[in-house]
Amino acid sequence: MTNETIETMLNHRSIRFFKEETLSDEQIATIVRAAQSASTSSFIQAYSIIGVKDPEKKALLSEYAGNQPYVLKNGHFMIFCADLHRHVLAAEMEDKSAEEILHSLESTEKFIVSVIDASLAAQNAAVAAESMGLGICYIGGIRNELAKVIDLLGCPSHVLPLFGLAIGIPEHTSDLKPRLPYENIYHEESYQPDDDIMKKQLAEYNQIISDYYNSRTAGKRQDRWTQQMVSMLSKRSRMTMDQIVRQQQLMKDERQ
Amino acid sequence: MTNETIETMLNHRSIRFFKEETLSDEQIATIVRAAQSASTSSFIQAYSIIGVKDPEKKALLSEYAGNQPYVLKNGHFMIFCADLHRHVLAAEMEDKSAEEILHSLESTEKFIVSVIDASLAAQNAAVAAESMGLGICYIGGIRNELAKVIDLLGCPSHVLPLFGLAIGIPEHTSDLKPRLPYENIYHEESYQPDDDIMKKQLAEYNQIISDYYNSRTAGKRQDRWTQQMVSMLSKRSRMTMDQIVRQQQLMKDERQ
What we know:
The structure is a homodimer.
Chain A: H1 4-10, H2 25-36, E1 47-52, H3 55-64, H4 69-72, E2 76-83, H5 85-93, H6 99-105, H7 108-131, E3 135-139, H8 146-153, E4 159-168, H9 182-185, E5 186-188, H10 195-216, H11 225-233, H12 241-247
Antiparallel strand pairs in A: 1-2, 2-4, 3-4
Helix pairs in contact in A: 2-7
GO molecular function (chains A, B): oxidoreductase activity
Organism (chains A, B): Bacillus selenitireducens (strain ATCC 700615 / DSM 15326 / MLS10)
InterPro entries (chains A, B): Flavin_OxRdtase_Frp, Nitroreductase, Nitroreductase-like
């Protein structure tokens, strides 16, 4: 049971080396239109996409993202933002005072809605690009220096850049990385209540991931997935996120 | 510039009436595997999918979601959850104390990561289903009664249901709903600094949306988009979200 679209998705791997050939405006338009076709919560369309071509700006973004060269060297770079700014403009256009909507607009609920909307649009963009033979890589690294990114892109209140998407003609290919076991991700009727079953699945997955690295590095690397995760999570990174989100006037609920 | 995959995405419309024919296990597996193939932040795979077939459980979910009949009547119903629970299990497997990772795990940053991961997976599931000739509808309504949904599905700490996805054979089709103007969503080099330009785009869009309703309701409905948004945002809905997220031990940053 498969088709071209499903094959495209199953063949996804992140691409980190692109040919230096820029996307045409027509290619960009096709990708953005696919993004816009994604579902949106109550038609709110609470996201924006900022396309960056200027090499100096891309170099700065690359630096902010931890010197990832593929933020600079690609066919096009887009940044997906949670965006409730145009809804403030909508209130002005309807002659409503901002106060009437801000309590709802600046809630955790609406922030979650905007993150989901931006992500659904981005994944359509990613799949559209891949279906055209292009490669993609999501860049969460822009959140390393998010205040600087907000400043560089001139994002007003109620707009928060979430991640970048590097797109281009692949300069290489890479291996498919095995995902978590199906049963570990997909639960039936209710959340898997038995942690021991989940741990057994994770132990089997550790073996698959160790074998994956082992065979690709001639034995130099044999990390387990659980080890990678614990190593990542024992570092405290981007701990100012809550503060930056609220500086952008999002998720401002008073906590009890 | 188009292909089958892009056509599938451009033809998306939400389907709210499905034939009473359940998806085969093979169809479900194909959809879940497509979901799992989506990008994930640093390989964290911070989401789970709960598939619900039990008609009694679906009836309850339908009630919680504001009596949406298509939550009960469809080919399959899935709930996408932000999930950092298995990463706590990973720490136990690596003989680390939970304390070593919880500060990072329970941060706003990691909550955002898990919402993005769940949404990217969901959009792959949606596109995969549509590429197979099925229809879909996202169900944000489960957040109306999220505490009850968490209880019904037995979600442990660090797991938060975000939205449902109803899938099935379409019983009808509906019209494509025009999206916001391209230039309103897609900005170049930086966020559009001129609110007047954005308002002009929104005014043009209002006309398109009014015409859309007008022609489909023989003049009975002519709402503007800005009017719909302001009407929605002047109601305070799901204002306990911040509290529920923190009850699930997510996004627990101390606020300054």
